[in-house]
């Protein structure tokens, strides 16, 4: 399926049903479908050929998201560009992807003005919500959109190219095909509850996980409620107001929801599935969420190269048959998804037995087509005939997958391997800790010392000696942090992940 086929499928169920809603304004499936055809026609008129790359630089916005379907209907390839990136990174991504057209919001005009002169392939600039006079040659939306509709078949199966980000070197472009996203959609519909016509609330960026989770909702004729900016209080209100059935947040934002004063007084009974993922979640906070938000929490584990659904933990699997919380599973990432084979591989390429720790590797039609213009990285990621996730983990006897760390985040201290995720889970069980990160820093005695940076809950006293003793009782002295820092907040990526590289650099500079 093309990306636009999800929209068309939803329209086939009820053309007048609500499709996209923002700030009280709703567009029906018929309206979004018709506008996507006009966008496609305008792209074709300006010379965009099937298979060429078209970028969108925008915060969450229904018009920008409709452009995704117009790009697909024109046979082109969608390239989401995150507005929170630095200008140099976005310029590098637009050049790497060979984009010929860029849609952008007016508030990002200074960024576009800064970079577009160095991008000769970028022939067409379209401002979605203004005239953008500061960007020479940019078209206003009214000047761009033509009056007729086209539908162009694609030249191949590549549907979108997504940047991996440049935090570990030069960014790479992940080529995701229609087949990849169809597999992801099929797994989603197989693995999680969907009763009736869904209503999906999108707070997290539509350029990332929150965006691709729209496709299964659209296939069922569901409504997407788009939040233009992140606001946890407004998020809680909208769940009740729109009778939201499905939503997704990374753990950091779920912690903020749990801390919000209005949560316990809000009617959340419409929720069927509250997905969490993109980073490990505290088992203690998850157990709290199962009580205060409801028995609707649903984990997903994936990565850009294998979107969203390598493994799944639906709401029912958070509980035992007698209805009690299955605390032993809350630290897992669920079971491998129905259309995915997961194994654990040693450094020599041999597959390991259950319970043994090694790199998580995957085989599935979920896995990307490769890295755009980077055959070396593609070959490295697919060594031994498996996709390499870069995560360390194991499968237990019941086939539950446990992710113990990113390979690069493992701390070797005194000859022992310490997995930062295990230490973070112990820290997050303490009632004073709001969020945390564990890294290794050079140490003359230990080789590396386990180091923790804490963000405390509002009003918490945060006695670091007491917190250290609390952790030692749970996981032993070897894994207990030898250095504990308390910060007001932790550095985070554009999608809310804690940036351990920034923490490491900051603490190293003080050494």
Helix content: 25-40%
Largest sheet: 9 strands, mixed
Task: Report mean pLDDT, rounded to a whole number.
Answer: 93
The total of helices stands at 16
Evaluate the radius of gyration: 23 Å
CATH class of the domain at 24-177, named Alpha Beta
CATH topology group of the domain at 24-177: Rossmann fold
Task: Report the uncertain regions.
Answer: none
Trace the largest sheet across and list its strands.
Answer: 2-1-11-10-12-13-14-15-16
User: Gap between N and C termini, in Å?
Assistant: 53 Å
Protein name: Long-chain fatty acid--CoA ligase
GO molecular function, one term: ligase activity
Pfam families: AMP-binding, AMP-binding_C
InterPro entries: AMP-bd_C, AMP-bd_C_sf, AMP-binding_CS, AMP-dep_synth/lig_dom, ANL_N_sf, ATP-dep_AMP-bd_enzyme
What does this molecule look like?
This protein is an alpha/beta fold and about 500 residues long. Among the domains are: about 25-175, Rossmann fold, CATH 3.40.50.980; about 410-510, ANL, C-terminal domain (GMP Synthetase, Chain A, domain 3), CATH 3.30.300.30. Helix content is about 30%, strand content about 25%. It starts with a helix and ends with a helix. The mean pLDDT is about 95.
